Amino acid sequence: MFSIHVIYDIFTYKVVNYMALGENIKKIRKEKKITQQELAIKMGISRSYLGDLENNRYNPSSKTLEMLAKKLGVSMLYLTTGKKTINDLNEDELKEGFDQVQKNFRKSNDSVNAFVERKLKALSNSELEFTVSQYLANILIFLQNSDTEDIRTLAAFIAQLNKYKESGKDENINQDELLEFIEGEAEFFKNFLKRYYSYNEGD
């Protein structure tokens, strides 16, 4: 599934060396507050072997990488490149991303409100297709019926769609990595829907 030497990073279009993999494993493990011993037990491997992986003494197999990602609760993309999919972001990071959008507007001497007002005015003065009108009407209903967390989460998801829409058209993109990214986004949206509809796993 992955080249033994390099992995393509679809976010920055750089080739990532496997030598960074050990550092990524160690960094994520510490982020999750998991000790080497705890992770080794979860993986069914020795602590010394895990230590060798974290110190880049061995290149793990694809199967080991997949298990590491699963046990650490992160995407393969984040594990192998250090670049997070939206599903890897915690609540604070989602809020930070949302706030960054607002900062970008301010840098361009435009406020979010002014941008929205200008766009809505332009839309109201144009003849919209029926499907576009229906879409906008449903968005307005969603905004009325949703709390701040719902709106922030969906806004972050849509921002991801806008940001990486053209990624797959680059001929150098590794399709396995792109699929991993897509599946991560789909999982994020699935979890959003579970929370939005108050789904309880055990019921």
Would you write up a description of this structure?
Mean pLDDT is 75; it is low at 1-18. Helices cover 64% and strands 4% of the residues. It is elongated. It has ten helices and two strands; from the N terminus they run E-E-H-H-H-H-H-H-H-H-H-H. A two-stranded antiparallel ribbon has the order 1-2. It has helices at 21-31, 36-43, 47-54, 62-72, 76-81, 91-107, 112-124, 130-145, 148-164, 175-196, and strands spanning 6-9, 14-17. The chain is mainly α and 203 residues long. The two termini are 37 Å apart. The chain has two domains: 6-84, 434 Repressor (Amino-terminal Domain) (Orthogonal Bundle), CATH 1.10.260; 91-196, no CATH class. The longest helix has 22 residues, at 175-196.
Please give the alpha-carbon distance between the first and last residues. 37 Å
Q: Describe the global form.
A: elongated
Tally of alpha and pi helices: 10
H/E topology pattern: EEHHHHHHHHHH
What is the residue-averaged pLDDT?
75
- What is the strand arrangement across the widest sheet? 1-2
Q: Kindly provide the radius of gyration, computed on alpha-carbon positions and rounded to a whole number of angstroms.
A: 21 Å
Please identify the structural class as seen in this structure.
mainly alpha
Can you count the beta strands?
2
Helical content band: 55-70%
Total domain count:
2
Can you tell me the residue ranges where pLDDT is under 50 for at least 5 consecutive residues? 1-18
How can the largest sheet be summarized?
Answer: 2 strands, antiparallel
Strand content: under 5%
